[in-house]
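note to self — DONT lose this again. spent like an hour looking for the file last time. sequence + predicted structure for the chain T wanted, 435 res
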Amino acid sequence: MRSVLLLCLSLVTSLATAADWQQFRGGTAGKLGKVKHTLEWNTESNVAWAVPMKGSGWSSPVVVEDRIFLTAAVPEDGSRPKGMMAGVSSMRTYRSATPVKQTFVVSCLNLTDGQELWSRVVGQLVPPVVHPSNTYATESPATDGERVLTFFATTGSLIAWDLDGTELWRKNVGTYKSGNGFGTGSSLTMTEGKVFVQHDNDESSFVVAFDSKTGEQVWRDDRSTRTSWSTPLLWDTGKMSELVTCGSGVVTSYDPADGRILWKLSGMKSSFSASPAIGADQIYFGMSGPGSAGPLVAVPAGLRGEVELNDEFECDQIAWSMTKSGPGMASPVVSSGLLYIPGSGGILNCYDEVTGERVYRTRVPQMATVAASLWADDEHVFILDENGTTHVIQSGPKFKVLATNSVDDLFWSTPAIAGEILLLRGVEKLYCIRD
């Protein structure tokens, strides 16, 4: 009887863990074994609940069993971030705007009904003005199932909490100027008792690892890179785990255990907003934006040493590269051997992940700007645009829209998936999508 009871408890624990969403993009570069959430929803259908957001933040929710954890910055004047076009139109004037006092908050909600279980104020500050489309809480938290780590780059505060909201430890990593005053955005990454902070800025860039239980520094690498917004990605190559970081003009892979540099790829010439995608024995990354040729690069597992791309973004050590093909803000995703990257103007690009050949380039009907990262299994690719429409694309060499699901809000935050539940964070509300 005792063995049966232990088996049952083990099964319950494993099921709860399987439904957790522990960090940005699930820690799996947005690739799921099998999507369990519904494929169709709208404001009137399959929205189990929607609760108003406390303040603003493009950080993603994380989930532990029946609890959701969120970070936000509450502005004194009640202002909200703007969408892409409104933000672009404000570019000439935003730096001269009057700074507004922000209250930085960590909250825990019930996954079942969205009710707030607890909320904690981390601090208050009148920070420098950032780009009107960004927020002061863009860094997603991370959890190991026992504690939750939150990071506000604006205050420099890295804090560990237990699940009931008790502060366990706090470190201040400093505050620094961002490129062009655009603000910050790199989320936390966790594995095997460590939490990693990538803080590429215009003053003193670094990547640092802390012991998640004690807060003690494990290793640190001071970098010469400037502002970047990409989130570190743990890449299991089959032989070892690598912490891949995309900085300004350079991609660096570390041994997560001790910070030893495994490989460094330079010659990218610009800063990253998107994070990498992982495929079959390769990792994919790139960038695009004003003044950038927008390379897309595939690196094979096992790369070591320092490697530099030439002016055509090529070298013998990489698998392949494509100019004018890199992602913008939204991180790409791999599904069934294909790499999906949304472009400007509602364009979706699909590449063969092994060869780099473009399978198709097509316009997705009525797709607006995409800032949230993509997620997928081997049958579906999900793209949430800023207007609240999720475009469900059939995975495969032929383009086909399977569903178009709309919720009326502004979305830049990357969704969280907890088993059969999909969480969409908008400017106004957090939406729980469920059959």
